[in-house]
Amino acid sequence: MPFNTIHVPASLPPATCRAINHQLHAALVEACAVNPDDDFCLIIRHAPEDMILHPTFLGTRDPDGTIILQVTLLAGRSDEQKEEFYKNIRQRLREIGFEPRNSIVFLVENRAIDWSFSETGSVKTVLGL
After folding, report:
1. 55 FRET partner, CA 20 to 30 A, in 61, 68, 83, 119?
2. What is the pTM of this model?
């Protein structure tokens, strides 16, 4: 049950943003065994002066063209799954013509009690977990 937040430069075309989310979700399904139907994303556009990204921290990147992929998901994936996910998404970015070195990816893990999609309560309550 991931929720993707993609931070992008304001100039990045909407079609590219949608393609990035499509590839991000596919990588999560493949590497982290998320449900294919659990596709939720918020794309947040930023003016260039609002994205302060070091150009050489743990790799070289173009700060003006870098995107940030933040994935919030239920805890429980192994370190191996996470590493596979990082490789998978960067390969997928390359395949759609986006330079993978211009991506920062991070996961935020939580529990079923931390999610609610309706007035019936948390996912934990709804699914009886």
Report:
1. 83
2. 0.90
**What is the pLDDT, as a whole number, of residue 59?**
86
Distance CA 129, CA 124 (A): 5
Spatial distance between the Cα atoms of 61 and 2, rounded to a whole number of angstroms: 26
Helix runs in the chain, H state only:
14-32, 79-95, 123-127
Is the CB of residue 66 less than 8 Å from the CB of residue 52?
Answer: no
- Whether residue 10 has pLDDT greater than 70: yes
For residue 22, what pLDDT is reported? 98
How many angstroms separate the CA atoms of 94 and 85, rounded? 14
Contact 67, 12 (CB under 8 A): yes
Of 121 and 5, the one with more pLDDT? 5
DSSP string covering 51-72, please?
Answer: ----SSTTS---GGG-EEEEEE
DSSP state of 85: H
Ramachandran category for residue 5: left, alpha or beta (phi over 0 → left; psi -120 to 50 → alpha): beta
Q: Could you say which DSSP state residue 102 is in?
A: G
